[in-house]
Amino acid sequence: MKQAILSLLLFCCILSLQAQVHYKTTSLQCPLAGTVQLQNCTDTFLAQVRSLEIHEPDESAEYEALMRIKEAQQRKYPYKASPHKNLKTTAPLAAPTVSRSFVADSNSGTPPDNYLAVSKNNTCVSVMNSFISVLDGNTGLMTKRTGLKTMSLPVGLNNIMNDYRYDPKIIYDPEEDKFICIMLNGVNAANYIVIGFSQSNDPKGNWNFYKFYGNYKGDTTWFDYPAITISKNEFYFTGNKLGFNTSWQSGFRNSVIYQIKKADGYAGLSLNYKIWDSIYYDGKPIRNLHPVKNGSSISAATPYFLSNRNFAPQNDTVFLIRLTDTLNSANASIQINPLKSNLSYGVAADGRQKDTSYTLATNDARVLGAFKEGDEIQFVNTSINPSNGAASIYHGTIQQVSSNPSVQAQLLSIDSLDMAYPNISYFGMNNGSIVSLINCNYTGPRTFGGMHALISKAGQYSDWTTIKKGDSNIVVLTAKQQRWGDYTGSQIDWNFPGNAWVIGIFGNAKRGYGNYMARLSSPYNVGIAPVAENAIKSISYPNPCYQFTAIDFNLAASAVLNFDLYNSNGQLVAHLLTQFCEEGQNRLQFNIGYLSAGMYQLVASDTKGTPLIRERILKQ
Q1: Has residue 43 got a pLDDT over 50?
Q2: Strand locations in 162-220, DSSP E?
């Protein structure tokens, strides 16, 4: 009998008092499987064998069905060029800037499934199929890389036919200054969920590992596609239960939510946890429950979840799901609120590529990113744009979440590009409005696949900021459709409001997957105005710095400039000087040595107060 069945404590079925909502709960216990020190994990050759045929096990029927939907969408919504050919845009918001960026790893599986977590001490962790890498967030220097299987050997899954790891996700917990990493092992009867809790803020240190059997009820189902979030006290992950050896049409059973006490995992104790499954609304299962992550701080409340009709050609329903109480509460329940959006979404055609007929898979229209700040949730998913046929980004906002929720959405689209695998993070406040950062992968018939991001505030958007341009198209598999996602990562910089980290995919020079990480900064930090359109180009060095730093800039005409230094919260640290600067090349030099370590921003403004230069400086 399987371990999860042996540890069964309680099974109960609840028919909700809400007439249209049905769910069940199962309470289980999971013992510690083992502890490992990542630094000591030896994986000298980082060897892996990956199939160059299409898709993962038991996916051929799902692939064929989804391809039929995509082909129908392409016929119904053919590609159309915009009638507006102006190259210069007039976006109402200033765009984000890339303050740091680097290749996070270069040995991706198929699909990449890349994700990230970044700690308060600027330690970056990249996970993807099928590796984990630790990097210095200031320099991008990789300090450790090993296989996910090597890292999680203590769980004891040693069946050579099914002992492999995939679909990794990782999250940083700023309350505890620790990490939680999840990955899957095998399919069908060999399927397990593998979870590691770090014992400290050093991801190269000790991890406590646990394994959860996918077929915990003995109903011949396995767990797929995890998504994660945390509250102050608990860790949550969701996924889909699929029948053994079946297609997506007949095999999907339901989506599930796991609820776990974080402290027990960090301490290496046995985990008492609850599974919420058989979640139905109006007699139909809710599919692909996406946890809504935190905004500016970690909430003590249990989280919300989002879902939609992700395989629909066009649909306007968004499901708002709430888990009402904590793990130990006897009164916890699930509430489901179907919302009707002002704008429909739908499955998108696959991404076009430059210099090849191979396409990039955009998958379906499921929610891929969401955060909650105050009483507002913002979310993103991939969607067809019926007006031009392009794969686009659907950005929704749910207001008055706790009382009278309603959803409004907009499509972010460029006719010459296909965009997919978006994510979104809280990016600060400005004039009482939430600022968000939306990132995604892009490709096009004249553009190699890369990454970009924009800012949203109060229904307005900035231009896209290119994070990483592609070097070539992506051709890894033998089939015409190439894998691309299945997701990107995004999290706020917990040290510096108005900054966020993202990770995504670009086409590298070998026609493979480039895994790229970047830190983006908002021009809407409190107290710092956006740089003017005629901004002066500048460069700072050394950066990072310990003491003296210099900024070179070139003036088209002489001018009086005010030089001010701000901290990461947008607060003025010091007015350095006001000086008449000559036409041509100039250099500002000053001593930053007496300041505390952290991120600062130098702003040079003209006599009207218009910012002309902005340089971010990292004090070490």
Answers
A1: yes
A2: 165-173, 178-185, 192-198, 206-213
Region 361-390 average pLDDT: 97
- Nearest of 144, 149, 150 to residue 204 by alpha carbon: 144
Instruction: Look at the alpha carbons of 508, 514, 518, 522 in this order and tell me if their dihedral is positive or negative.
Output: positive
What is the pLDDT at residue 46?
A: 65
Which tokens is 369 given?
Answer: 């990113």
d(CA 502, CA 455): 13
Residue 442 backbone class (left: φ over 0; alpha: ψ -120 to 50; beta: rest): beta
pLDDT number for residue 537? 77
First to last CA, the chain: 55
146, 48 contact by CB (below 8 A): no
For residue 606, cis peptide bond before it (omega within 30 degrees of 0): no
The kind and range of the H/E element at 28 are strand 21-30
pTM of the model: 0.83
Do the strands 293-294 and 367-373 form a parallel or antiparallel pair, or are they unpaired? parallel
Beta strands in 331-459 (DSSP E): 334-345, 359-360, 367-373, 376-384, 391-399, 406-412, 418-430, 433-444, 447-457
Predicted confidence at residue 13, as pLDDT, reads 43
What is the Cα gyration radius of the chain?
Answer: 24
